[in-house]
Specification:
Methane Monooxygenase Hydroxylase, Chain G, domain 1; 45% helix; single chain; alpha+beta; Thrombin, subunit H; 5-stranded antiparallel beta sheet; 2 domains
Length: 157
């Protein structure tokens, strides 16, 4: 059950805080909406409660879960797809799950490619998105700024 003040994560958008849950009259139908303020890019979302499951919204992770997941970034990549177009699609799919562990795997693999100088420019966009998504969750879990969260992530590589 969602309540005001809950810290949540919305796949593809990042972490946010539920600001309000209210009834709204739309075309003579009363619907309940949840209002979410995301911590990055000053975006607010308004989602009908009856469609909330479609967004795969979840609670943010605990500190322990966070540290377990971000330590993945320090690991050596297990296997990296050689064909960049397939890798791009796979990384996008991982990010879309909203699962922190998968997002950290994307960071690990792309940081590795970047360190070897073999990451195509097109994947820079995915790297930035993954950093923002993981960074937004770190912000809420540790109560720090996005810059501080990004420093934590980038110091792990």
């Amino acid at each position: 059950m969602l309540t005001n003040g809950d810290k949540i994560f919305v796949p593809n958008y990042g972490a946010g805080i539920i600001k309000n849950i209210e009834l709204k009259n739309i075309y003579n139908t009363v619907c309940e909406f949840v209002y979410i303020e995301l911590v990055i890019n000053e975006i607010s979302l308004s989602i009908p409660i009856n469609r909330i499951k479609n967004y795969k919204i979840r609670e943010i992770v605990t500190k322990e879960q966070l540290y377990n997941c971000i330590n993945i970034i320090k690991e050596e990549p297990k296997k990296i797809e050689k064909k960049w177009s397939k890798r791009y699609r796979n990384n996008n799919d991982k990010i879309s799950t909203g699962i922190l562990e998968k997002e950290c795997e994307v960071l690990r693999d792309l940081y590795y490619l970047k360190s070897k100088g073999i990451m195509p420019l097109g994947e820079e966009k995915i790297l930035n998105k993954a950093e923002e998504l993981v960074g937004s969750e770190i912000m809420l879990v540790l109560d720090i700024s996005l810059n501080e969260a990004l420093k934590i992530i980038r110091n792990l590589k």
